[in-house]
Prior knowledge:
The structure is a homodimer.
Chain A: E1 7-11, H1 16-27, E2 31-36, H2 39-53, E3 58-62, H3 63-69, E4 72-75, H4 82-88, E5 97-100, H5 121-129, E6 134-137, E7 157-161, H6 164-176, E8 181-183, H7 190-207, E9 213-217
Parallel strand pairs in A: 1-2, 1-4, 2-3, 4-5, 5-6, 7-8
Antiparallel strand pairs in A: 6-7
Helix pairs in contact in A: 1-2, 4-5
Amino acid sequence: MEATQRVIAILGGTGKEGKGLGYRWAKKGHKVIIGSRELDKALDAATELNQMIGEGVVVGMDNLQAAEEAEIIVLTVPFQAHQFMCESIKQPAKGKLVIDVTVPLVPPKVTKVQMPSAGSAAQEAQEILGMETAVVAAFQNISYEHLMSDGVVNCDVLVTGTGKGNRELVISLVEDAGLIGWDAGPIENSVVVEGMTSILIGLNKKYGVHDAGIKITGINNAR
Amino acid sequence: MEATQRVIAILGGTGKEGKGLGYRWAKKGHKVIIGSRELDKALDAATELNQMIGEGVVVGMDNLQAAEEAEIIVLTVPFQAHQFMCESIKQPAKGKLVIDVTVPLVPPKVTKVQMPSAGSAAQEAQEILGMETAVVAAFQNISYEHLMSDGVVNCDVLVTGTGKGNRELVISLVEDAGLIGWDAGPIENSVVVEGMTSILIGLNKKYGVHDAGIKITGINNAR
């Protein structure tokens, strides 16, 4: 069965997270829009990805226009910009699915779990965007080093968020990116997955590595 | 080098978690005290373990006496009894290390992360016990099915809590139980590990298994 082609906007998508996900989704046949505060940077990133993939399937836009054009909106912005970004896309995001990749790291203690008052970044997004928009959190734990090089990412993706069907859709997008996704439950569980990033950063520092991750065990490897 | 023999009290230790940990530690040469609200049950559990190990190294006591006799106190009580148990051992726990195994599950929605107001069970314990007692959280994610049968537990143990040295001591006890332990940072990070249990319960239900777990990846397997 042919997978459904989606129109996916990746806001703040000029960083390595956004470009890495965009690269993998575009390769899989999705229409990817790289969004940025600065249109020039978005266009440059789109050009870079198209050169890698060899097709004109990635386009660049400013964040707001990208949100308007897409059916699925992915947030890969720094936590400092998270609240503002959610507020600014509230109208164009109505009725759409928002995938929140944000990790609420608070420097300098990035190895200590420090959640916003909403409970997690994903819950903050859901509060701001309102119930006409579904927020699902994913991809917070993976190292983005290998996404652009077709490398194997030895880290599973835990998917939390509003609505089982939405989580299942995001799991299919996780799989389209070449990763293994798991339904990790309702949006209240996002604190676990976002907070895990602080623990993995701590392990990276302690062991002098840069891609500590997690794998789910005990479930048959048919997945 | 001979490992240091510890005197470890396991409060609420007649359940499968407590007995499983007690069995493995006693086999490794530690002096294990099984504590229970009911002395008879504690004595029965101690007898059961001694019959398995073949030595009189496990004793049974009521919870309070067990806490008084031990140098390390392990809490394996249901979350409903957690607050009361912490209050009742406040005096005997002074100056000692408390290992909190409690997972704050709130029925009926045990697959949804629901933390106490302190932020996590471990932080609740630390608040009640005060800073003269160090609280370290561990063992919340493992399935206890295999502990009593010398089986391999395919799940790592993330260790969070007050004081790096205390976490390292607990990691050595994790290893004495035949498991792999990781320093997962300060006590504020306990929400991640405690909450992970709700996610694993959800995966158990979804996939019809009973020992979904997690493994840390990306760090050399010398550990």
